[in-house]
Amino acid sequence: MNKTQTNSVGFSLSSDRVSVIILLIPALIFCTVFIFIPAFWAIVGSFYSYGMTSLNDWKWVGFDNYIKASQDEFFWIALKNNFIIVFASIVLQVGVGTILAAILDRGIKYGKVIFRTIIFTPMVISSVAVSIIWLIIYDPNVGILNSILKSIGLPTPSMGWLGDPDISIWMIMIVAGWQNTGFMMVLILAGLQGVSKEVYDAAEIDGATGVKAFWYITLPMIRNILIVAILITTIGAFKVFEFVYVLTQGGPSNATQVLGTYIYLQAFNLLHMGYANALSVVLLIIALILGWFQLKASRRA
Amino acid sequence: MSKFKLANIFAYGFVTLFSIYVLLPIIVMILTTFKTRREIFLEPLGLPGQFNFSSFEKALSIGLGGFIFNSFLVSLFSVILIVIISGMAAYVLARIDFRINRYVYLLIVAGFAIPPAAVLVPLYATVSNLGLLNSIYGVVMPLTAFGIPFTVILFYAFFLDFPKEVEEAATIDGCSKMQIFFRIIIPLSGPAIASAAIFQTVWIWNEFLLALIMLTSDEVKTLPLGLMKLRGEWSSDWPSIMAGLTIAILPVLIVFLIFQKYFVRSLAGLGK
């Protein structure tokens, strides 16, 4: 937040005070009713046991839900998967997005707009639709992935691409990368286009061109935008829901659960509302830590 | 010289391969809609024998039009609320030296960080207590709340760069803060409003988790829920499922291709 914001537009009359409050209050009411009060109740509710049909019949259980979580293998798998998705998304989406952006910025002469449009397109398609399309691609019977591999004589996984717990989370990452890499590319491309031509001319005189110029000149200059991209990707990785819900429902045998789908499963399939709240609190803490980083990054930027 | 050529081949090769990766699933989707169920089993890689539109009719018969209409209403209401409410709050934050601004901004950033899954059960209870389950307002209200923090941050950055002279002149002419906001700031904020509206529309049009828990009867379901219904009811009738997806995706793709410059610009502004 900019502390030196100027105040030349004044604020003295009491009618102004009223307008300020009127302007500010709707945003605060919406966020309070639908975000902050629910967050408070998630914390309180995590110390109780209750179900969907007994939404008002709460039974105090102390830290039992948290103890249960610490012993729940699937909770740890879900948490681990979220971290795998963070790591893989940073490499696949931000990393590949940066390479694509660099190529579109200075690497090629022709077809920039066409390539940019194609690669960005998945961003506007709903994740549910994207996941269903990939279901048919991965399908063991009618999918083109198996057909292509068979036609060139390569083996295909016997349990199917999404049925093998060792590879299913990576199959989900391929879908997530398909949808989100273009967004990262556009974000980073905007940063690259802000780097002036003079910088490259100067670098060329010093003998830095191509990949060398990219590594030593470009990357440090777009450092802030890369931090923003990594933060957006990390926050997004903890919000992952649709890809897992549609592609694997968290399976096979919970190997691809993430916090989002596991909270949903506990709350709305198993009706363990209190336990779901405890899992939500874990997600809440992670989210607030990331939000704090976001605040630091935006102040520096 | 040959080194330069090699770099060129790598650059074009990389973007071309990535474009194929992006286009292939879309091509599969469109081709599958025209195939018969027999064809997709016998020759997954083959082209459709003839253009067969029956799967489109089947997809429309399940009520896809209604789901699209619900998504349209949810997006329209939410985006209008988000843009107006966020604009008002961001204006106060950026322009008026108000004591609590600092804390409001902290709340906004916290609100941005919190995902719906982290408040899922109490949010469901809230909407239930408001009597809004199975009503599109049961998703419009929470989606508006979750859209506000991000949009406030977007507008805040825009208003900071906004020239102050106009507002000063209006203040001298005796306009109140409310009048300045609605008569001067809003009409001059076209680009910021477009950015915010585009970004939020894409997000809300595709939102799934909140719709999934709040909307259970078919009359109020949004498009992503409708697509799941297609998938659930037809399981292996891939041509019909893909026809449903094509109908759902095509309008958005066309709008995107027409306005892609604005889409790209709106998202590119986020990094600033």
Short characterization:
The complex is a heterodimer of chains A (301) and B (272). Chain A is mainly α and 301 residues long.
Overview of the structural elements:
Chain A has 301 residues and is mostly helical. Helices cover 70% and strands 1% of the residues of chain A. A two-stranded antiparallel ribbon of chain A has the order 1-2. Chain A is globular and about 75 Å long. The interface between A and B is large, with 118 and 110 residues.
> What is the name of the CATH class of the largest domain in chain A?
Mainly Alpha
Q: List unreliable stretches of 5+ residues of chain B.
A: none
Percentage of residues in strands of chain A: under 5%
CATH topology of the largest domain in chain B: MetI-like fold
Order of helices and strands of chain B: HHHHHHHHHHHHH
CATH superfamily of the largest domain in chain A: MetI-like
What does the average pLDDT of chain A come to? 87
Q: How many structural domains does the protein architecture of chain A include?
A: 2
User: Going across the major beta sheet of chain A, what is the strand order?
Assistant: 1-2
Order of helices and strands of chain A: HEEHHHHHHHHHHHH
Question: Helicity range of the residues of chain B?
Answer: over 70%
> How many strand segments of chain A?
2
Average residue-wise pLDDT of chain B: 86
Q: Please report the distance between the alpha carbons of the first and last residues of chain A.
A: 10 Å
Per CATH, the class of the largest domain in chain B reads Mainly Alpha
Furnish the topology, listing elements before pairings.
The complex is a heterodimer of chains A (301) and B (272).
Chain A: H1 14-45, E1 48-49, E2 59-60, H2 64-70, H3 73-107, H4 112-120, H5 127-138, H6 144-151, H7 168-193, H8 197-205, H9 210-221, H10 223-239, H11 242-247, H12 259-269, H13 273-300
Antiparallel strand pairs in A: 1-2
Helix pairs in contact in A: 1-13, 2-13, 3-7, 3-10, 4-7, 10-13, 12-13
Chain B: H1 2-34, H2 37-42, H3 54-61, H4 64-95, H5 101-113, H6 120-129, H7 137-160, H8 165-172, H9 177-188, H10 190-206, H11 209-214, H12 223-234, H13 238-268
